[in-house]
Amino acid sequence: MITDYDCWHPQHDAVSLNEILSNLNRNAENVQRALKEAVREIPEDRACKCGSALAHAIVTDRKLIPAAAKKRLAPLVGKYLS
């Protein structure tokens, strides 16, 4: 999320922290909207393997993963942590 994309350019005026934070907040809102829309567009039934892409990504022995970490990660990989 770019907040001061022309900071490298010597012929542009400097920007204030308020301008950077404003851009950051606006970018965060835009990303949230884009993600919500993208998730809504995911079909319920898929023929692709993307729904199980993380099935083999966790190589740590499940017994060594702390309960707090399992709880925190549950929305993303909970079905693979048991």
Write structural notes for this entry.
The protein is mainly alpha-helical and 82 residues long. 44% of the residues lie in helices and 0% in strands. The protein has two helices and no strands. It has helices at residues 17-41, 67-77. The longest helix has 25 residues, at 17-41. The model has no long low-confidence stretch (mean pLDDT 87).
Determine Rg (CA atoms, Å).
Answer: 20 Å
Structural class: mainly alpha
Largest sheet: none
Which strand-content bin applies to the residues? Answer: under 5%
Mean pLDDT comes to 87
Q: How would the blueprint of this fold be written?
A:
Blueprint: H1 17-41, H2 67-77
